[in-house]
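Now for a concrete sample entry.
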Amino acid sequence: MKVALIGLGTTGRIVAEYLYKEQVLSLVLCRENSPDAGNDLGELLHRPYMGVAVETTANLEEKLNRYKPDIVIDFSSPAFLREHLSTLARCKVNVVTAVTSYSQMDIKRVKVLARKREIGVVIAPNITRGVNVLLVMAQIAAALQADYDFQVIDENHRNKKDSPSGTAEKIVAAIKRGLEKADGEQLIPVHSIRAGDITGRHKVLACGQYDQIEITHTAFSRTAYAEGAFKAAQFIYGRKGFYEMKDVYGLRKPSYAEERLHSDAVVSLAGSYA
Protein backbone atom coordinates (compact mmCIF):
# COMPACT_ATOMS: atom_id res chain seq x y z
CA MET A 1 0.00 0.00 0.00
CA LYS A 2 1.34 3.43 -1.01
CA VAL A 3 -0.11 6.58 0.54
CA ALA A 4 0.03 10.25 -0.40
CA LEU A 5 -0.75 12.82 2.29
CA ILE A 6 -2.08 16.34 1.87
CA GLY A 7 -2.16 18.73 4.80
CA LEU A 8 0.95 19.43 6.88
CA GLY A 9 -0.59 21.40 9.70
CA THR A 10 -0.03 20.51 13.34
CA THR A 11 -1.91 17.23 13.04
CA GLY A 12 -0.80 16.53 9.47
CA ARG A 13 2.86 16.51 10.49
CA ILE A 14 2.18 13.89 13.13
CA VAL A 15 0.25 11.87 10.57
CA ALA A 16 3.21 12.14 8.18
CA GLU A 17 5.59 10.82 10.86
CA TYR A 18 3.23 7.95 11.64
CA LEU A 19 2.77 6.94 8.00
CA TYR A 20 6.52 7.15 7.40
CA LYS A 21 7.18 4.81 10.33
CA GLU A 22 4.60 2.42 8.87
CA GLN A 23 6.59 2.54 5.60
CA VAL A 24 3.61 3.50 3.44
CA LEU A 25 4.18 7.22 2.78
CA SER A 26 5.31 7.86 -0.80
CA LEU A 27 4.32 11.50 -1.42
CA VAL A 28 3.28 14.65 0.42
CA LEU A 29 1.14 17.21 -1.40
CA CYS A 30 0.82 20.91 -0.61
CA ARG A 31 -0.99 23.91 -2.07
CA GLU A 32 0.36 25.41 -5.28
CA ASN A 33 1.99 28.47 -3.69
CA SER A 34 3.42 26.67 -0.66
CA PRO A 35 7.06 27.34 0.26
CA ASP A 36 7.29 23.69 1.34
CA ALA A 37 7.22 22.48 -2.28
CA GLY A 38 10.39 20.91 -3.60
CA ASN A 39 11.73 19.92 -0.20
CA ASP A 40 12.26 16.50 1.25
CA LEU A 41 9.80 15.76 4.04
CA GLY A 42 12.70 15.41 6.47
CA GLU A 43 13.52 19.11 6.10
CA LEU A 44 9.98 20.11 7.08
CA LEU A 45 9.90 17.76 10.06
CA HIS A 46 13.44 18.74 11.16
CA ARG A 47 14.68 15.23 10.59
CA PRO A 48 17.39 13.67 8.45
CA TYR A 49 16.64 12.93 4.80
CA MET A 50 13.48 10.80 4.56
CA GLY A 51 13.22 10.26 0.81
CA VAL A 52 9.63 11.52 0.61
CA ALA A 53 9.04 14.30 -1.92
CA VAL A 54 6.84 17.30 -1.18
CA GLU A 55 5.01 18.39 -4.34
CA THR A 56 2.29 20.93 -5.08
CA THR A 57 -1.13 19.92 -6.35
CA ALA A 58 -0.41 21.59 -9.71
CA ASN A 59 -0.59 19.03 -12.53
CA LEU A 60 -1.89 16.56 -9.98
CA GLU A 61 -2.74 13.84 -12.48
CA GLU A 62 0.84 13.69 -13.74
CA LYS A 63 2.15 13.41 -10.18
CA LEU A 64 -0.31 10.70 -9.25
CA ASN A 65 0.74 8.72 -12.31
CA ARG A 66 4.40 9.22 -11.42
CA TYR A 67 4.28 8.32 -7.71
CA LYS A 68 1.35 5.89 -8.05
CA PRO A 69 -0.21 6.16 -4.57
CA ASP A 70 -3.09 3.81 -3.86
CA ILE A 71 -4.68 6.21 -1.39
CA VAL A 72 -4.65 9.92 -0.61
CA ILE A 73 -5.13 10.86 3.04
CA ASP A 74 -6.49 14.39 3.33
CA PHE A 75 -5.91 16.58 6.38
CA SER A 76 -6.19 19.87 4.48
CA SER A 77 -9.50 21.62 3.74
CA PRO A 78 -12.70 20.98 1.76
CA ALA A 79 -11.17 22.82 -1.20
CA PHE A 80 -8.85 19.91 -2.07
CA LEU A 81 -11.57 17.34 -2.77
CA ARG A 82 -13.86 19.92 -4.34
CA GLU A 83 -11.16 20.70 -6.88
CA HIS A 84 -9.40 17.37 -7.32
CA LEU A 85 -11.83 14.52 -6.62
CA SER A 86 -12.46 13.94 -10.32
CA THR A 87 -8.72 13.70 -10.94
CA LEU A 88 -8.28 11.22 -8.10
CA ALA A 89 -11.15 9.16 -9.48
CA ARG A 90 -9.70 9.23 -12.98
CA CYS A 91 -6.41 7.92 -11.59
CA LYS A 92 -8.22 5.29 -9.48
CA VAL A 93 -6.78 6.66 -6.24
CA ASN A 94 -8.87 5.99 -3.15
CA VAL A 95 -9.41 8.67 -0.52
CA VAL A 96 -9.47 9.00 3.26
CA THR A 97 -10.47 12.50 4.29
CA ALA A 98 -10.39 13.69 7.89
CA VAL A 99 -11.60 17.17 6.96
CA THR A 100 -14.44 18.19 9.28
CA SER A 101 -16.24 20.97 7.42
CA TYR A 102 -17.82 19.44 4.32
CA SER A 103 -21.29 20.57 3.34
CA GLN A 104 -24.06 18.07 2.69
CA MET A 105 -23.70 18.89 -1.01
CA ASP A 106 -19.99 18.02 -0.84
CA ILE A 107 -20.75 14.65 0.74
CA LYS A 108 -23.48 13.90 -1.79
CA ARG A 109 -21.07 14.62 -4.64
CA VAL A 110 -18.44 12.34 -3.12
CA LYS A 111 -20.96 9.51 -2.78
CA VAL A 112 -22.10 9.85 -6.39
CA LEU A 113 -18.57 10.03 -7.78
CA ALA A 114 -17.33 7.10 -5.69
CA ARG A 115 -20.14 4.97 -7.07
CA LYS A 116 -19.88 6.12 -10.69
CA ARG A 117 -16.08 6.03 -10.93
CA GLU A 118 -15.69 2.92 -8.77
CA ILE A 119 -13.23 4.27 -6.24
CA GLY A 120 -13.22 3.98 -2.46
CA VAL A 121 -13.75 6.95 -0.15
CA VAL A 122 -13.81 7.18 3.64
CA ILE A 123 -15.30 10.42 4.98
CA ALA A 124 -13.92 10.63 8.51
CA PRO A 125 -14.42 13.84 10.50
CA ASN A 126 -14.60 11.49 13.49
CA ILE A 127 -11.42 9.58 12.75
CA THR A 128 -10.40 8.29 16.19
CA ARG A 129 -11.64 5.01 17.60
CA GLY A 130 -12.78 6.59 20.86
CA VAL A 131 -15.02 9.17 19.20
CA ASN A 132 -16.76 6.41 17.26
CA VAL A 133 -17.48 4.57 20.50
CA LEU A 134 -18.85 7.83 21.93
CA LEU A 135 -21.20 8.12 18.93
CA VAL A 136 -22.64 4.68 19.64
CA MET A 137 -23.01 5.44 23.35
CA ALA A 138 -24.68 8.80 22.64
CA GLN A 139 -27.25 7.16 20.37
CA ILE A 140 -28.01 4.47 22.95
CA ALA A 141 -28.35 7.06 25.73
CA ALA A 142 -30.78 9.10 23.64
CA ALA A 143 -32.87 6.05 22.77
CA LEU A 144 -33.10 5.01 26.44
CA GLN A 145 -33.43 8.49 27.99
CA ALA A 146 -35.46 10.42 25.44
CA ASP A 147 -37.04 12.56 28.16
CA TYR A 148 -33.62 13.93 29.18
CA ASP A 149 -32.20 17.19 27.83
CA PHE A 150 -29.16 16.60 25.61
CA GLN A 151 -26.34 19.05 24.93
CA VAL A 152 -22.90 18.71 23.33
CA ILE A 153 -19.67 20.44 24.35
CA ASP A 154 -17.06 20.68 21.59
CA GLU A 155 -13.54 21.70 22.68
CA ASN A 156 -10.57 22.18 20.34
CA HIS A 157 -7.41 24.24 19.89
CA ARG A 158 -7.61 27.95 19.15
CA ASN A 159 -6.65 27.55 15.47
CA LYS A 160 -9.39 25.11 14.54
CA LYS A 161 -11.42 26.83 11.85
CA ASP A 162 -14.81 25.11 11.97
CA SER A 163 -17.13 25.70 14.89
CA PRO A 164 -18.94 23.52 15.72
CA SER A 165 -16.67 20.77 14.48
CA GLY A 166 -17.74 18.03 12.10
CA THR A 167 -17.35 15.60 14.99
CA ALA A 168 -19.79 17.61 17.11
CA GLU A 169 -22.28 17.56 14.25
CA LYS A 170 -21.88 13.78 14.02
CA ILE A 171 -22.61 13.50 17.74
CA VAL A 172 -25.76 15.59 17.36
CA ALA A 173 -26.87 13.35 14.48
CA ALA A 174 -26.28 10.24 16.61
CA ILE A 175 -28.35 11.68 19.46
CA LYS A 176 -31.16 12.55 17.05
CA ARG A 177 -31.16 9.00 15.67
CA GLY A 178 -31.52 7.70 19.21
CA LEU A 179 -34.36 10.10 19.95
CA GLU A 180 -36.17 9.07 16.77
CA LYS A 181 -36.11 5.45 17.92
CA ALA A 182 -37.86 6.57 21.09
CA ASP A 183 -40.29 8.82 19.19
CA GLY A 184 -38.65 11.85 20.77
CA GLU A 185 -37.44 15.12 19.31
CA GLN A 186 -35.53 18.11 20.68
CA LEU A 187 -33.09 20.82 19.71
CA ILE A 188 -29.53 19.74 20.63
CA PRO A 189 -27.40 22.79 21.55
CA VAL A 190 -23.66 22.64 20.80
CA HIS A 191 -21.24 24.71 22.87
CA SER A 192 -17.93 25.16 21.04
CA ILE A 193 -14.74 26.17 22.84
CA ARG A 194 -11.60 27.12 20.91
CA ALA A 195 -8.70 27.69 23.29
CA GLY A 196 -5.00 26.99 23.72
CA ASP A 197 -3.77 23.71 22.29
CA ILE A 198 -6.68 21.46 23.28
CA THR A 199 -6.14 18.34 21.20
CA GLY A 200 -9.83 17.46 21.13
CA ARG A 201 -12.51 16.87 23.74
CA HIS A 202 -16.18 16.14 23.15
CA LYS A 203 -18.78 15.69 25.84
CA VAL A 204 -22.43 14.66 25.72
CA LEU A 205 -24.58 15.87 28.60
CA ALA A 206 -27.89 14.12 29.22
CA CYS A 207 -29.71 15.91 32.03
CA GLY A 208 -32.83 14.58 33.70
CA GLN A 209 -34.85 16.04 36.52
CA TYR A 210 -32.98 14.12 39.21
CA ASP A 211 -29.68 13.02 37.67
CA GLN A 212 -27.23 13.60 34.84
CA ILE A 213 -25.23 11.40 32.47
CA GLU A 214 -21.94 12.54 30.93
CA ILE A 215 -20.17 10.77 28.07
CA THR A 216 -16.75 12.23 27.28
CA HIS A 217 -14.00 11.52 24.78
CA THR A 218 -10.64 13.23 25.24
CA ALA A 219 -7.75 12.89 22.81
CA PHE A 220 -4.46 13.02 24.75
CA SER A 221 -2.31 13.05 21.63
CA ARG A 222 -2.77 13.83 17.95
CA THR A 223 -1.28 10.41 17.30
CA ALA A 224 -4.84 9.17 17.84
CA TYR A 225 -5.78 10.90 14.57
CA ALA A 226 -2.77 9.42 12.78
CA GLU A 227 -3.65 5.94 14.00
CA GLY A 228 -7.23 6.39 12.81
CA ALA A 229 -6.11 7.65 9.40
CA PHE A 230 -3.81 4.66 8.93
CA LYS A 231 -6.57 2.28 10.00
CA ALA A 232 -8.93 3.89 7.49
CA ALA A 233 -6.32 3.62 4.73
CA GLN A 234 -5.85 -0.08 5.45
CA PHE A 235 -9.62 -0.51 5.30
CA ILE A 236 -10.19 1.33 2.01
CA TYR A 237 -7.18 -0.20 0.23
CA GLY A 238 -8.59 -2.16 -2.71
CA ARG A 239 -12.20 -1.31 -1.82
CA LYS A 240 -14.82 0.61 -3.80
CA GLY A 241 -17.70 2.70 -2.52
CA PHE A 242 -18.47 5.28 0.15
CA TYR A 243 -17.70 4.55 3.80
CA GLU A 244 -17.53 6.18 7.20
CA MET A 245 -15.43 5.39 10.25
CA LYS A 246 -18.18 3.23 11.73
CA ASP A 247 -17.53 0.90 8.79
CA VAL A 248 -13.79 0.98 9.45
CA TYR A 249 -14.28 0.10 13.13
CA GLY A 250 -17.09 -2.39 12.54
CA LEU A 251 -19.72 -0.25 14.26
CA ARG A 252 -22.23 -0.14 11.42
CA LYS A 253 -25.77 -0.78 12.65
CA PRO A 254 -26.65 -4.48 12.22
CA SER A 255 -29.48 -5.57 9.98
CA TYR A 256 -32.96 -6.12 11.36
CA ALA A 257 -32.47 -9.89 11.12
CA GLU A 258 -29.25 -9.67 13.13
CA GLU A 259 -30.99 -7.50 15.73
CA ARG A 260 -33.80 -10.02 16.05
CA LEU A 261 -31.33 -12.87 16.38
CA HIS A 262 -29.46 -11.00 19.11
CA SER A 263 -32.70 -10.05 20.86
CA ASP A 264 -33.98 -13.63 20.81
CA ALA A 265 -30.66 -14.86 22.17
CA VAL A 266 -30.82 -12.36 25.04
CA VAL A 267 -34.41 -13.37 25.87
CA SER A 268 -33.41 -17.02 25.80
CA LEU A 269 -30.41 -16.38 28.04
CA ALA A 270 -32.54 -14.36 30.46
CA GLY A 271 -35.06 -17.18 30.58
CA SER A 272 -32.39 -19.66 31.57
CA TYR A 273 -31.74 -17.62 34.73
CA ALA A 274 -35.42 -17.15 35.61
The first strand starts at residue 3 and ends at 6.
